[in-house]
Amino acid sequence: MAASHMLFCFWVLLLFMNNAAGETRHYKFNVEYHNVTRLCHTRTVLTVNRKFPGPRLVAREGDRVIVKVVNHIANNVTIHWHGVRQLTTGWSDGPSYITQCPIQTNQSYIYNFTITGQRGTLWWHAHISWLRVSIYGPIIILPKRNESYPFAKPDKEVTIMLGEWFNSDPEAIISQALQTGAGPNVSDAFTINGYPGPLYNCSSKDTYKLKVKPGKTYLLRLINAALNDELFFSIANHTVTVVEGDAVYTKPFVTDKLLITPGQTTNVLLKTKPEFPNATFLMAARPYVTGQGTFDNSTTVGILEYEHPSHHNHKSSKNLTIIQPVLPPINATVFAANFTGKFRSLGNAKYPANVPKTVDKKFYFTVGLGTNPCPKNTTCQGPNNSSKFAASVNNVSFQLPTIAILQAHYFGQNGVYTTDFPTQPLIPFNYTGSSPNNTNVMNGTRAVVLLFNTSVELVLQDTSILGAESHPLHLHGYNFFIVGQGFGNYDPNKDPLKFNLVDPMERNTASVPAGGWVAIRFFADNPGAWFMHCHLDVHTSWGLRMTWIVLDGPGPNQKLQPPPSDLPQC
């Protein structure tokens, strides 16, 4: 009896250990060409596994994920696992020339990481030039086994990825723009799960349709994978309950309109009508625009279609009333600020908001556009037709090195980057007032070095140089807490008095308001080289990016792991 009891205890312990440790999930991503037709234009698109959008990556909290990426195309490529913390596994983060050299044609690389303390919706995408326009897909992190959501279990879960479609090759578009100094051509359509919808020419058959049943609850995993646009989203005649942002549970709130910036994810609960409504409802997304340049002023539409009760003598769905949603005005900055302000962490015992209450290091970074002078004996098409568009953080436009910063840091290679990134603007001015006469930026590969576990406060200040504009900033390797935001210039004496240090939202991507500022805090508890950049790719290409280098901590689990043997070479 005692022996069998001991055996039973052993099996229970083994089961518990398996649950706690998680399992290992293997994926193979073949980056390959695939012909896709949208808007009557057939184009050779860069994809993973010939899918557009790409395949789902599903794991549980605590699982180890191993993805072998094989490059079958002519372009260099890397994959970034957007929002995954990558604790001590910076080599698997993916931004080209920051944590790795790119994977060259006919080469492969194995990304190997464990999902620790995270559950919810994230996503993966290419992280070199503009390749992510078609190389992207969802990451769905389920709670640990026997764990539940902090809300009622939905009847079904659906992923909705918002994206952009270009009729011509996006790589040619950004290449030409960087050469001429002009703003790049904009996209030809927005998409819902790869489909533009019926409001575009030659597109009615390419419409995403979500079939639902009355009286059910659907968890919609919304992801903005668009290249250069923040997007409003709404479903006609329906409200949704926001329950998560960037794979962090929120205090639930109800809304009929959402704003999602590129890089962000938002999970919402959709409760369908109790009975068949005799109508078809459109879901729509269109851009939130604050800048002065040209933009894709179009709307992508999908269909929310109720299933008919089987016993019904139903009308054909073609005869049903079609109801359209009302989206905010295209430049609804006040709506944007109010909507962002509704997000609050759950902040309870199980899901605490561990925001730094005291701060070791304070940083004040301006973000915005600027110019580079036109090279001698050439003509440029940027501002005043005499310069090139640029973008910067604290007036430093970041130049990518030719070998990865993380390699240079780990192996002590000099001359790749400098550690003199300015902690505040070198020349203070009225950031949101009239533009200074000199709009030129400095160019360099500069980083900020942080000691392990430093508590950081970073204020990101928009500038009105070449026009105030909203900038969705993404920090790799970390979540951060949004402790405050406002319009105008940040006031270091008054504004901190209003900071939320109780239940601030925790995210990996946050918008700096147009003509305003956002304050974030985080503990630098993950050693490595971590990219921070605007998630509007045109701004990233222009240099609105920088790198944090976090040194190793004293403990064994506080050190960057050695590089893998198959790390790509430049």
UniProtKB/TrEMBL annotation:
<dbReference type="InterPro" id="IPR008972">
    <property type="entry name" value="Cupredoxin"/>
</dbReference>
<dbReference type="GO" id="GO:0052716">
    <property type="term" value="F:hydroquinone:oxygen oxidoreductase activity"/>
</dbReference>
<dbReference type="Pfam" id="PF07732">
    <property type="entry name" value="Cu-oxidase_3"/>
</dbReference>
<dbReference type="Pfam" id="PF07731">
    <property type="entry name" value="Cu-oxidase_2"/>
</dbReference>
<keyword id="KW-0964">Secreted</keyword>
<dbReference type="InterPro" id="IPR002355">
    <property type="entry name" value="Cu_oxidase_Cu_BS"/>
</dbReference>
<comment type="function">
    <text>Lignin degradation and detoxification of lignin-derived products.</text>
</comment>
<keyword id="KW-0439">Lignin degradation</keyword>
<keyword id="KW-0677">Repeat</keyword>
<feature type="domain" description="Plastocyanin-like">
    <location>
        <begin position="422"/>
        <end position="551"/>
    </location>
</feature>
<dbReference type="InterPro" id="IPR033138">
    <property type="entry name" value="Cu_oxidase_CS"/>
</dbReference>
<comment type="similarity">
    <text>Belongs to the multicopper oxidase family.</text>
</comment>
<dbReference type="InterPro" id="IPR034289">
    <property type="entry name" value="CuRO_3_LCC"/>
</dbReference>
<feature type="domain" description="Plastocyanin-like">
    <location>
        <begin position="31"/>
        <end position="145"/>
    </location>
</feature>
<keyword id="KW-0052">Apoplast</keyword>
<dbReference type="InterPro" id="IPR045087">
    <property type="entry name" value="Cu-oxidase_fam"/>
</dbReference>
<feature type="signal peptide">
    <location>
        <begin position="1"/>
        <end position="22"/>
    </location>
</feature>
<keyword id="KW-0732">Signal</keyword>
<protein>
    <recommendedName>
        <fullName>Laccase</fullName>
        <ecNumber>1.10.3.2</ecNumber>
    </recommendedName>
</protein>
<dbReference type="InterPro" id="IPR001117">
    <property type="entry name" value="Cu-oxidase_2nd"/>
</dbReference>
<dbReference type="InterPro" id="IPR034288">
    <property type="entry name" value="CuRO_1_LCC"/>
</dbReference>
<dbReference type="GO" id="GO:0048046">
    <property type="term" value="C:apoplast"/>
</dbReference>
<dbReference type="InterPro" id="IPR017761">
    <property type="entry name" value="Laccase"/>
</dbReference>
<dbReference type="InterPro" id="IPR011706">
    <property type="entry name" value="Cu-oxidase_C"/>
</dbReference>
<keyword id="KW-0560">Oxidoreductase</keyword>
<dbReference type="Pfam" id="PF00394">
    <property type="entry name" value="Cu-oxidase"/>
</dbReference>
<dbReference type="GO" id="GO:0046274">
    <property type="term" value="P:lignin catabolic process"/>
</dbReference>
<keyword id="KW-0325">Glycoprotein</keyword>
<keyword id="KW-0186">Copper</keyword>
<dbReference type="InterPro" id="IPR011707">
    <property type="entry name" value="Cu-oxidase-like_N"/>
</dbReference>
<dbReference type="GO" id="GO:0005507">
    <property type="term" value="F:copper ion binding"/>
</dbReference>
<feature type="domain" description="Plastocyanin-like">
    <location>
        <begin position="157"/>
        <end position="308"/>
    </location>
</feature>
<dbReference type="InterPro" id="IPR034285">
    <property type="entry name" value="CuRO_2_LCC"/>
</dbReference>
<keyword id="KW-0479">Metal-binding</keyword>
